């Protein structure tokens, strides 16, 4: 037997890190421009200017932090900033902010995102947690009582959580909820107060599909994540007996409602797809997205928070090294372990879905306005 050996060639494709971050930045800026236009149109120029100030504070703080960190490490600041892509984190963090957030809170959260969640771990490519998610968690944990005097109305996730326990029972109850936010059209277009960039569901999906076609992000992550939320909430609708909405069965409209509220769509396309804090293999990313979807629904239905996406991302970031090590080895073994892991996690998800469904009940008589009105913009959609 004759064996031939040759060194595999190193191929250089057009998809570079610089191109990925450039196109991702463009997509995020489009969403930001929509936010500025929306708030300016609905509430006036002061609101649009506040959006600009939020982004400016986040970007300036990011550049200062990265410049100082480069100086401390005795490296070229210009080169370090260029290759760390900190502005992507800053833009994402700004889009996760409510328009009512005070600017000093933006600065503090950006410092935590850049310094403690990114630079201390070694910079771009070495961080364990998604930096923008860490920054947003700081806002939620430390500045819930700090707001400007701009928007103080309750956001959809906070309102549906506190008034209906995430379970409006029938079309009359749902109509009463939807009329506060422009109906289904308002939820799709995002023309209501909330986090700056998380409300524009339709625009996010269009930009996300474009990024998938351009191979900037992996389609498996948003599809599995959003699909998991859809299936779990559909099962909850069936178990709890949620009624139809104008002829549409509860197991169809209720999952759609979950997908339109809060930051799950934004998180699916711009947070969970982060190549640094998610597994490197396609199988690993699939399991990662599945776990995040299960945690999101579980937190929403049984937790004390109106949202679940933010903490599901951070919790799954912790699991990334475990997923990577579990899927290490020969290709055939990896495929087998990935299939088994996915099936086992689906079984766990089904069990948790049944558990959540047994803990909640559809609401036919909402709480009184005095009880329900517990949220101002500080309890906004937490990604």
TrEMBL record:
This is RnfABCDGE type electron transport complex subunit D. Pfam families: NQR2_RnfD_RnfE. Keywords: Electron transport, Flavoprotein, FMN, Membrane, Phosphoprotein, Translocase, Transmembrane, Transmembrane helix, Transport. InterPro entries: NqrB/RnfD (IPR004338), RnfD_bac (IPR011303). It comes from the Bacteria. The chain crosses the membrane at residues 20-41, 47-69, 90-117, 192-212, 224-245, 251-270, 282-299, 341-357.
């Amino acid at each position: 037997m004759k064996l031939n050996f040759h060194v595999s060639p190193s191929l250089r494709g057009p998809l570079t890190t610089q191109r990925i971050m450039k196109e991702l930045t463009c997509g995020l800026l489009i969403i930001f421009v929509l936010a500025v236009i929306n708030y300016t149109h609905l509430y006036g120029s002061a609101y649009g200017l506040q959006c600009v100030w939020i982004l400016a504070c986040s970007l300036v703080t990011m550049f200062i932090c990265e410049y100082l960190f480069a100086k401390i490490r005795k490296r070229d600041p210009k080169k370090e900033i260029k290759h760390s892509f900190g502005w992507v984190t800053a833009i994402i963090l700004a889009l996760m902010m409510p328009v009512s957030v005070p600017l000093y809170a933006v600065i503090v959260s950006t410092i935590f995102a850049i310094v403690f969640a990114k630079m201390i771990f070694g910079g771009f490519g070495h961080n364990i947690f998604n930096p923008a998610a860490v920054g947003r968690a700081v806002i939620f944990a430390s500045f819930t009582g700090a707001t400007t005097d701009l928007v103080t109305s309750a956001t959809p996730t906070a309102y549906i959580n506190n008034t209906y326990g995430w379970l409006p029972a029938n079309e009359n109850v749902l109509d009463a909820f939807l009329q506060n936010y422009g109906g289904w059209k308002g939820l799709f277009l995002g023309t209501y107060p909330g986090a700056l960039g998380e409300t524009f569901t339709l625009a996010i999906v269009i930009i996300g599909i474009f990024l998938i076609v351009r191979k900037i992000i992996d389609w498996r992550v948003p599809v599995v994540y959003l699909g998991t939320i859809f299936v779990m909430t559909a099962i909850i609708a069936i178990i709890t007996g949620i009624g139809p909405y104008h002829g549409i069965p509860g197991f169809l409209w209720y999952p759609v409602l979950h997908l339109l509220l809060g930051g799950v769509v934004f998180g699916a396309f711009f947070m969970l797809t982060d190549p640094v804090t998610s597994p490197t293999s396609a199988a690993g990313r699939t399991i990662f997205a599945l776990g995040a979807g299960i945690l999101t629904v579980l937190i929403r239905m049984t937790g004390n928070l109106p949202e679940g996406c933010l903490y599901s991302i951070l919790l799954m970031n912790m699991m990334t090294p475990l997923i990577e090590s579990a899927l290490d080895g020969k290709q055939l073994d990896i495929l087998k372990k990935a299939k088994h892991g996915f099936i086992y996690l689906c079984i766990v998800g089904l069990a948790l879905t049944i558990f959540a469904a047994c803990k909640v009940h559809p609401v036919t008589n909402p709480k009184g306005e005095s009880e329900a009105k517990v949220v101002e913009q500080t309890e906004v959609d937490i990604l």
